[in-house]
Design a protein that fits this description.
The complex is a heterodimer of chains A (669) and B (101). With 669 residues, chain A is mostly helical. Chain A is built from 25 helices and 6 strands. Helix content of chain A is 70%, strand content 5%. The chains are: A mainly alpha (669), B mainly alpha (101).
Chain lengths: 669, 101
């Protein structure tokens, strides 16, 4: 343990956290124990296992909250590893890290999971496979905690893949419909392609340094070690490819909107606290590498993040499905986070992750509440829900204002900090794209809000407010969407910066992001402008909203509606070639080789069994046995005729026998 | 008289008994033939006793045993024959096949 952590020029004092940190492995183990309990006992519980899941997440939430307070008051750095296996010179370890970064993530995952799981108790009531759902959902959160608690790259990959498989299961929850299971597969495959980068990168860095522990790799990175120098940039790029897949960065973003096929609580947790934040977390965890030896590739990270935030924001404008608007919004916000981390804004990126978790989780919960009420995902079937669903409406408003970055809501502080970082660290173009992105964000969120909650109701369902089990988590998050940003106000209170700064690894450059008033005002102005324009487009004729597509720009609109034709491109360039010849070859080999072998084995087995039964058993063994019985029987039948019952015959035979004996004795003696 | 002459007489008597046993149909005559065989044996026992002149007179004792056992046997045998005759109205041995298969 390093009790003193150098953050910029200041010395941050930290403790090892005592038994609270030593027992932090419970955060990971309890969800998995809960998952097993749900699988074995869930069906017999009154809520079909949901209460076990909520209880486990409540435990994680409380433990994480205590750790967070401990970190705020004292600063905690603790790391423990248990050796699991030794393969040659490679040591496989399982452990847990409690430092500023992981504690922040524990808290985000714990809080969001607890609230979303509670919400899911109401949302999933009467659903098919509730027990199955909660088991997979608990596994989802537990895998994310494995990923976050990992002190080495191997454990990170274990959690990473666990999150991937859980998302596959959950996105495909309603697998009776083909498109849902296809969406699950799409998420899984897209991630799998990117995961290859992560795994190769981990192997390169791990073998170069000789250890898969972050602390070893990052110590080597900060010390500018000679062994790491040739592969640092390559390893950094490969790890970033993995992060691009999980965090849905361009061009791997295609899976995230389709992931809406799962139940809404899944979308909420996936977009807020698990899965998509994994990539951002990985970049943040490996930040000393990117800040130091792999600094050359930071431009790449900024460019990818900036492209992502722009193109996803544009796509959100044309969506009619409420959840898809939010999904593209998430992709866009992830672009902000990645761009910030690339530009050197360690705190800014994580701060946006933190605030985004609360308001985006909430946006999905409210969307779920709306969908639950109107039985449609399409915003054309909504409208006028403001009066009928007050809790949902006010929660949605709070989250929208946070996402649009209106002062004093949470998103304002984090997005402003990202823009300021981009500007100050010399990425002026990216900053302007970010400001444009703020405008786009405001526009599509204003559109979603006006179409959903204002005007007249256009559907035909009986609309009602959601039950308390769903409304209370929304209300809590509604407050959080307001206050979550107040933990880091540059120049006034920089708590968040200090929390995530407490780490065992020295940062080469880790300065608190400065305050930039002109940028802040510009961003705020663009956001307000976006809201106002959306108001004119979508609220001015709120009663009918028939003309809401009048902004349909001839070339741009179809282009956006087809998602830049990226899916078609992937289909044409990757999926179909693979599906065509490769699938055909696999099918051929299956039909002719594997099936041939199997059928041949079947035929052979039948022949053998026929021989065994017909020839060996019936004609061999049975015949021998029966023949023995028949011979014995007929022999007995003949021999018994000797038993005439005539005493004199017996006497004669005795006499003959005695005579023969006498003769024999006489001859042989 | 020498031992051999006694033995020849015993053998003749035994053979006569065997002949009677196998040939006679009347059960009473069969029992009679058995008596003849037993007495042939007795004759041999006595003859050997007299010839060997043993001190404990085993042959004579055995002969008396045989006589007493033969008497008991004939008693039982005659009882069986009487019962069979009462049931079957015949005492012919070749008609008695109750023990056959």
């Amino acid at each position: 343990m390093i009790p003193q952590i150098l953050a910029s020029e200041e010395i941050v004092h930290a403790t090892t956290g005592g038994w609270l940190a030593q027992w932090a492995w419970l955060i990971v183990v309890v969800p998995f124990a809960a998952m097993l309990a749900i699988i074995f006992f869930g069906k017999r519980m009154p809520r079909e296992g949901g209460e076990i899941a909520v209880g486990a997440m409540g435990f994680v939430f409380v433990y994480a909250a205590v750790l967070l307070i401990l970190n705020i008051t004292q600063g905690v750095v603790y790391e423990h590893s248990i050796q699991v296996a030794q393969i040659g010179s490679v040591t496989v370890e399982w452990g847990w890290v409690v430092d500023g970064l992981s504690t922040m993530m524990y808290f985000v995952v714990g809080t969001l999971s607890f609230l979303v799981f509670t919400y899911a108790l109401g949302y999933m009531k009467g659903d098919v496979r509730v027990t199955w759902f909660f088991a997979a959902f608990t596994f989802f959160a537990g895998s994310m905690l494995v990923l976050v608690s990992a002190p080495n790259l191997i454990q990170l990959i274990v959690g990473w893949e666990g999150v991937g498989i859980a998302s596959y299961l959950l996105i495909g929850h309603y697998w009776e419909q083909k498109e849902n299971s296809s969406a699950g597969m799409k998420a899984f495959y897209t991630n799998k392609v990117a995961d290859i980068g992560l795994i190769i990168g981990a192997i390169i860095l791990g073998t170069a340094v000789g250890s898969f522990r972050y602390s070893s790799i990052l110590d080597a990175a900060t010390a500018n070690a000679a062994v790491l120098r040739p592969v640092a940039v390559l390893g950094g790029v490969l790890l970033f490819i993995g992060a691009m897949g999980k965090s849905a960065q361009f061009p791997f973003h295609v899976w995230l909107p389709d992931a809406m096929a799962g139940p809404t609580p899944v979308s909420s947790l996936m977009h807020a606290a698990t899965m998509v934040t994994a990539g951002v977390y990985l970049i943040a965890r490996m930040y000393p590498l990117y800040a130091g030896m792999a600094a050359d590739m930071r431009v790449l990270i900024v460019v990818i993040g900036t492209i992502t935030l722009l193109i996803a924001g544009l796509l959100a404008i044309v969506q009619d499905d409420l959840k898809r608007v939010l999904a593209y919004s998430t992709v866009s916000q992830l672009g902000y986070m990645v761009a910030a981390l690339g530009a050197g804004g360690y705190t800014a990126g994580l701060f946006h992750l933190w605030t985004h978790a609360f308001f985006k989780g909430l946006l999905f919960l409210t969307a779920g509440s709306v969908i639950h009420a109107v039985h449609s995902n399409n915003m054309s079937d909504m409208g006028g829900l403001r009066k009928k669903m007050p809790v949902t409406f006010w929660s949605f408003t709070s989250a929208t204002l946070a996402l649009v970055a209106i002062i004093p809501f949470a998103g304002f502080f984090s997005k402003d900090e990202i823009l300021a970082t981009l500007g100050q660290n010399g990425y002026r173009a990216a900053m302007w794209v970010g400001i444009l992105g703020a405008f786009i964000t405001a526009f599509y969120m204003g559109r979603a809000m006006f179409l959903t909650f204002f005007g007249t109701y256009k559907g035909d369902a009986h609309v009602h407010e959601s039950p308390a089990v769903m409304a209370v988590p929304m209300a809590i998050l509604g407050v959080a969407a307001l206050v979550a940003g107040w933990v880091n106000i540059p120049g006034i209170y920089e708590g968040f910066h200090e929390w995530v700064g407490v780490r065992a690894i020295t940062f080469p450059s880790f300065a608190p992001e400065a305050f930039d008033v002109p940028v802040m005002l510009t961003g705020l102005g663009f956001a307000l402008a976006g809201l106002i324009i959306a108001y004119f487009f979508y609220y001015a004729d709120a009663d009918t909203q028939v003309a809401r597509d009048r902004v349909r720009i001839p070339v741009l609109w179809p282009f956006l509606e087809h998602k830049y034709y990226l899916d078609d491109l992937y289909l044409a360039m990757l999926v179909n070639p693979i599906k065509g010849p490769i699938a055909r070859a696999v099918d051929w080999s299956n039909s002719y080789i594997i099936d041939g072998v199997v059928n041949g084995a079947g035929v052979l087995a039948r022949l053998i069994s026929r021989f065994v039964y017909g020839d060996l058993d019936q004609k061999g063994i049975d015949l021998a046995v029966n023949t023995a019985a028949i011979v014995t029987g007929s022999a007995g039948g003949r021999v018994r005729r000797l038993q005439t019952g005539k005493v004199q015959q017996y006497a004669a035979m005795t006499l003959v026998g005695v005579a023969l004996l006498v003769i024999a004795i006489v001859i042989f003696t | 008289m020498t031992l051999v002459q006694y033995l020849i007489l015993g053998a003749l008597m035994f053979s006569l008994g065997v002949y009677g046993l196998l040939i006679r149909r009347n059960a009473v005559m069969v029992l009679l033939a058995i008596e003849l065989m037993l007495n042939a044996v007795n004759l041999n026992l006595i003859a050997f006793e007299a010839a060997l002149r043993t001190s404990f007179a085993g042959g004579q004792v055995f002969a008396i045993f045989v006589i007493s056992v033969a008497a008991a046997e004939v008693g039982i045998g005659l009882a069986i024959v009487l019962l069979i005759f009462r049931n079957r109205r015949s005492a012919n041995v070749d008609e008695l096949d109750l023990m056959r298969w």
